[in-house]
Write a structure and sequence with these properties.
The protein is α+β, with helices and mostly antiparallel strands and 93 residues long. The chain has helices at residues 6-15, 20-32, 38-44, 85-92; strands at 2-4, 49-51, 54-59, 64-71, 76-84.
């Protein structure tokens, strides 16, 4: 997968330093991935969900959330939002 939006992850990490290692690990895994469909994503990230046309990844025991758009044909993941679990809950409730 090619990843766009790493700057959003870096900005989030500056604000939340404890997120740096788990989010870097997320990026490493995604960049090595070749996902032809959502089921393949689930085999890599069991807690990932498909919500309103975007993927929601639970990171670091559900402390952080990444909301991303994915083009499976082009193998591109675009990071739309990075937030804490609490921020995600406020946005979706």
């Amino acid at each position: 997968m090619e990843v766009y939006g790493e700057a959003a992850i870096a900005k989030f990490c500056r604000k939340h330093p404890a997120s740096r290692r788990p989010l870097q690990r997320f990026l490493e895994i995604v960049k090595q991935a070749n996902w032809p469909h959502f089921a393949a994503v689930k085999s890599t990230f069991a807690a990932a969900d498909y919500v309103s046309g975007r993927l929601v990844f639970d990171i670091s025991g559900n402390k952080y959330r990444i909301v991303a758009s994915v083009d499976f044909d082009e193998q591109i993941l675009v990071v739309d939002e990075v937030m804490t679990h609490e921020e995600y809950n406020r946005e979706t409730i």
